[in-house]
Specification:
Length: about 290
Amino acid sequence: MRNRQHHFSIGQIDISLRSECRSFVDEFASLYGPYRCGADSSESIRVEVRARHRYPWRRGPYTIANEDVHGFEVQHRHEVLPHLEWFINWQVIRQRQEYLQLHAATLEIGGQALVLPGNPGCGKSTLTAGLLARGWSYLCDEFALIDPKTLELQLFPRALCIKEPSFGAVDRLGLPLCRKTSYQKAAKGRVAFLNPLDVRPDVRGRPSRVRWVVFPQYVDGATPSLARLTKSKAAYDLARQCFNFRAQQERALAVLAGVVRDAECYQLTAGEVESTCNLIESRLLRQSSRKVG
């Protein structure tokens, strides 16, 4: 295979992927084929997957990097796609400083956006999958990209990376979790990908103002519950999930203050995904319709 670039425009993020091995491009395109585009852009995130073996389809090591950053070196081909996704996330943080960047899943319904911030393991990807199954529209499961001028969340509809302990929950939701290949992602272990466009073709959301900020924490066997957060506490906790807070400083504080001023803010104890989604919809959507009425 000729080592040429393949271009994708995934929401607000443009990506140019280069690899000498067709299977890596094909795997990436299986998640992002509808986002293929014909041209590069000046803001593209460039990434290359290289195999040091003379036959790239055999055992590695494989290098995931670009001209500026040496990202990952992995030994097995089933490690490439998760680490390619991870490397792209790093480059979004590094290159797209025009946005305030939060570590959060983001969804939208009726033009109102929900932000689910949290550390790895808090359950935000599984909860995102549960809300997708109920008709919510999708912005991203890894980033809240906030435009400082409009305070709107921007689209980066990347595939959801689901860890093995959540496979059963996603299966029970009837969602098309892709497990044709057993992928491995460093300490996270075995993972699989959920392509939101496989859930339904209109799943992509639209830029929206934040209506709800909900900090989830999964507790095995817990009865789901929501507790109100003060605006100051929510802003403080959002700052702790901000990838570029130090670089933005005063602007970041102003943006976060604007976000929480217009939002309802909660701490969520998450349990079984269906009952947790029931709670979210009954509390958030009911209160929202009451205010509109």
